[in-house]
Amino acid sequence: MKKFLALLRVSFRGILFSANPSSKAKKKSASGIGFLALMSLLMLYIGGVYSFSFAQIFSIFGRTDLILTLLGLIAVSMCFLFGVISASGFVFGGKDNDILLAMPVGTFPILLSKVLSLYLENIVFTLFILLPAGGVYLYFTGFSVLFIPIFLLCVLFLPLLPSALSLLLGFLFTYIQSKVRHKALINNLLYLVFFAAIFALSFGLSGSMASGGDPSIIGTFEGATGWALPLVWMTQALTTHSVVSLVLFLLSCAAPFFFLVWVFSLFYKKILTRLVSVQVRHDYKLQQMRGGKPFAALYKKELRRLFGTPIYLMNSGIGALMLLGGGIYAFVAKGKIASALADLPGASSGMLVAGAAVVAFCILVSSTTSSSISLEGNRLWILREAPVPVETIFAAKIMTNCTLMVPAVLIGVPFGAAGLGLGLADTVLLLVLGLSCAMLTSFGGLFLNLMWPKLDAVNDTVVLKRSMSVMILTFGSFGLIAAGAGLFYLLVGPLGMQGALWAPTLLYAVLAFVFFLLVRGPGKRMFRGLIS
Amino acid sequence: MLEIRHFSKTYSSGKRAVDDLSLTVETGSIYGFIGHNGAGKTTTLRSLAGILDFEEGDILIDGHSIRTEPVAAKQVTAFIPDNPDLYDFLTGIAYLNFIADLYAIPAEKRQTLISKYGDAFELTGALGSPVAGYSHGMKQKLALISALIREPKLLVLDEPFVGLDPVASHILKEYLHELCNNGAAVFFSTHVLEVAQKLCDHIAIIRDGHLVECGKTEDVVGNSSLEEVFLELARQGGEATEAVQ
Fold first, then answer.
1. Looking at the partner chain, which of B85, B110, B133 has a beta carbon nearest the beta carbon of A279?
2. Which residue has the higher pLDDT, A72 or A58?
3. Rounded to whole angstroms, how far apart are CA atoms A237 and A147?
4. Alpha-carbon torsion, ordered A343, A344, A348, A349, to 10 deg
5. Quick check: B126 and A281 CB within 8 A?
């Protein structure tokens, strides 16, 4: 037991305290807690928005209890979304596997400690998603003492489900990657399908929320969540205090979790051995070579890393993919959109604002540069030793981000604008907005990464999911969108809709220029001061 | 070829890793740099390769200051760290091409040199595979090939023989001599004192960041062995520390 607790402590510290590169424990701990606090705030926001919006609809039909099922589903989905990538990285891709497997400890406690560290993180997220749901439910139905202990049990047991699912899917992704030749391509496709499914579910929920007071929503919702028996039992236990439902819920969460961990522990060593066995062929013959410029070499290297590391592409390119996919979808579904807009008076005039919000969100929320310095890790010496000016190294990194973002803007925006029925002037505005955002994340992301580099991460997952620069860029983008929205509402009266939207566009362009100056000046000094 | 002038390096933690180090490595020389763990060897090597920033003193490579003319100094230098982490997502040949592009090595020349060193280190056949699958020794060989194809005027190596098999070690020693015969210089750190004594024409010994001995190998070693000299200096250092305390 002592050995297991020691392993669990190390695993959890590895996840929690990985945001900051500093060796000072206090600072590390503060940044780890900061990360959890930021994520918790995000979960609280999601939980709050969905709880209040749906409670108002469900309470009309006397089914406020459904928000517990709904928020339970959202909690499982969110934990699953974050957990799959973490499971691939921490459980199957950790650099500490050699050390751990050499220790006189069985594979079950090793695997359990790793999965439980994911589970502990999921508890925090689940708590902050379910807390508003519980509060809203009690507000609408009245306080019940028994609700509290059952609610706490639900918070403790529900995260076991996404942890088990993450373990399963994380293994499948990693296994497929180890079996196929074009592993990066296959993994990119797998992640794409996975994210598309999650977004489709999220859009479906938003769609049903928009359907407002239609009574069929209850039947539709029950039909859509009826398959998720643990969530149905959880709701019954919370609302009717049924012991049978509670026991069924607890068992349905714990049993698959421990069963999966046990099964995987039987083959853990075999799985890891297969994953680390990369075959080296010895039949290569030198072919005619071509020389190239240093910038091209650095740029190609960055692109190879981006497209050869699925988690990197998915994390930093998801916004661009959403914009591209969304724009083309809007164009294809032009007729449907037009008829929907015709049914909603005044909706078509808001399409420009909605389009601007989508463009800003998709481009601002992700960036390759916010992690590209950290991803150099122990390989930083190669760049530091090379006879190449720092500006060239930066230019290659910035160009990589632009390669992903600029085509997404140039293709996604005109298609999307045409789909939404926007005119030429509106399309130009959205294009300039998208390009300003792309420049801002390119320079801003790089500067943030120079400020908070994470060069000692145990794997890429830690850099991409937990490092401070990535977190600040993601959450900072929400702040930027809020600032842009504030400017718009201040100016929409005197300048009109289109005129007011130029204000956030200019704000992002000016900020991009400020970060450009920062990267050129202090950024170069910061790069020279990096120690890997 | 290499001139280190009053070089000192203090880390942000306050630790003074190297204190007022000065030495010169002449063209054609193989210079060994030895010292105990934490003596300041790696800090010195990384600083002269342009990887670590420093504030005190200067380091000149082929007349170019690594502080004020880093690109010119790096253009004639090749550095290999003790545990070379390379880009796992590249194949061996893609990595060599990447390095060759950074150092502007013409296509024809890089082909000849990669073939020469790849065959010598028996790595050519594996160059089409991703670096992720390479063993530690193969990565070490790839890093060495990437250094040698640059035909550097100054080759800086941190523990180059760790992880190399005996054949590869032997080949490396031959190439170090070849480089020096062609007008380059080699500056390397090692803990293998027998190798240092046999291979180097000059030796420098560093202890707690201070240069305690340097000169021609025969002058430093005298009638004893390098191991005896090193142990004696280490003993003196320990006694001096105790006396201070």
1. B133
2. A72
3. 9
4. 150
5. yes
Interface of A with B (CB under 8 A): 278-286, 288-294, 296-298, 300-301, 304-305, 308-309, 377-382, 384-389, 528-529, 531
In 3D space, the residue among A187, A168, A165, A188 whose CA is nearest the CA of residue A73 turns out to be: A165
What six digits make up the tokens of A381? 């010496």
Q: How confident is the model at residue A350 (pLDDT cuts 50, 70, 90)?
A: confident
Write down how long chain A is. 532
Binned at pLDDT 50, 70 and 90, residue A60 comes out as: confident
Instruction: Copy the structure tokens of residue A191.
Output: 């992640």
Q: Do A297 and B102 touch (CB under 8 A)?
A: yes
Helix B92-102 × helix B107-120 angle, to 10°: 130
First-to-last alpha carbon distance for chain A, in angstroms, is 36
Give A380's contacts (C-beta < 8 A, 6+ positions apart): A373, A455, A530, A532, B51
What kind and span of H or E run contains B8?
Answer: strand B2-10
Average pLDDT of span B145-162: 94
Q: Looking at residue A204, what is its pLDDT?
A: 61
Both tokens of residue B85?
Answer: 């982490």
For residues B105 and A289, what is the distance between their CA atoms, to the nearest angstrom? Answer: 11
Enter the pTM of the model.
0.80
pLDDT, tens only, A248-267 = 999 999 999 999 999 988 88
Q: Are strands B16-25 and B154-158 parallel, antiparallel or unpaired?
A: unpaired
B129–A280 C-beta distance less than 8 A: yes
Within its chain, how far is the Cα of B220 from the centroid? 20
Lowest model confidence (mean pLDDT) among A76-85, A147-156, A427-436: A76-85
**Four-residue CA torsion sign, B148, B150, B151, B155:** negative
Closest partner residue to A389 among B71, B128, B129, by Cβ?
B71
Helix axes A229-240, A147-157, angle to 10 degrees: 160
Helix (H, G, I), strand (E, B) or coil at B59: strand
Smallest CA–CA separation between B202 and chain A, in Å? Answer: 25
Which chain B residues are within 8 Å of A284, Cβ to Cβ?
Answer: 92-93, 124-129
Bridge partner residues of B21 (DSSP) = B7
Q: Which of A24, A185, A385 to mutate to test the interface with B (most CBs of B within 10 A)?
A: A385
Nearest C-alpha neighbor of A57 from the set A163, A207, A185, A195:
A207
Residue of A nearest to B126 (CA): A282
Q: Using a CB-CB distance cutoff of 8 angstroms, which residues of chain A are in contact with residue B105? A: 291
Nearest chain A residue (CA) to B51: A384
Q: Which residue, chain included where needed, has tokens 């390479």?
A: B134
Phi/psi at B90 (5° precision):
-100, 155
Q: Do residues A371 and A404 lie in contact, with contact meaning Cβ atoms separated by under 8 Å? A: no
- Predicted confidence at residue A24, as pLDDT, reads 46
**B23 beta partners:** B4
Taking an 8 Å cut-off on Cβ atoms, the answer to whether B98 and A301 are in contact is: yes
Out of A459-463, B126-130, B138-142, B169-173, least confident range: A459-463
Reduced to 3 states (helix: H, G, I; strand: E, B; else coil), residue A449 is: helix
Give the closest residue to A87 by CA, choosing from A466, A468, A461, A464: A461
| CB distance B117 to B146 below 8 Å | no
Domains of chain B, earliest start first: 1-76+187-245 (3.40.50.300)
DSSP, res A18: -
A159 and A257 in contact (C-beta within 8 Å)? no
